[in-house]
């Protein structure tokens, strides 16, 4: 098994082109390398191209359950995607499709009379909740 790593000019998309025969052990090696690459800050898209590779018939590594368990944490940390391309021109695409969440402020700017109104309502709800417990 051999592989070649390349990147686009802007450095956000990487690809791993695999050639030769893939067994379970070598496929796990590729997944470990891919997991590390997807974890890099600048990597937004990673393509694992298996079209030139000969897959062993008993190869069980490239199913969706294993791919999700390996790449789930990396995909949830940032907006990124993973694409596996196979010989029969099919592909598996895992995308986070989320941008990092912005931190929300703890307090909102409201007029004083509005704050007093909602403060009274919250006190009333708090008192009603105490009555429900007893």
Automatic annotation (TrEMBL):
Superkingdom of the organism of origin: Bacteria
Entry protein name: STAS/SEC14 domain-containing protein
Species of the source: Desulfobulbus propionicus (strain ATCC 33891 / DSM 2032 / VKM B-1956 / 1pr3)
């Amino acid at each position: 098994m051999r592989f070649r790593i390349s990147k686009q000019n802007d450095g956000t998309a990487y690809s791993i082109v695999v050639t030769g025969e893939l067994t379970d052990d070598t496929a796990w090696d590729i997944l470990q390398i891919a997991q590390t690459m997807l974890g890099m800050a600048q990597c937004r898209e990673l393509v694992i191209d298996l079209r030139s590779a000969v897959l062993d018939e008993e190869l069980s590594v490239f199913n969706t359950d294993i791919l999700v368990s390996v790449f789930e944490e990396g995909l949830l940390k940032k907006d990124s995607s993973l694409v596996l391309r196979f010989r029969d021109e099919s592909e598996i695409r895992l995308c986070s499709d989320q941008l990092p969440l912005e931190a929300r402020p703890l307090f909102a700017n409201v007029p004083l009379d509005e704050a007093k109104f909602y403060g009274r309502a919250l006190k009333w709800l708090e008192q009603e909740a105490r009555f429900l417990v007893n």
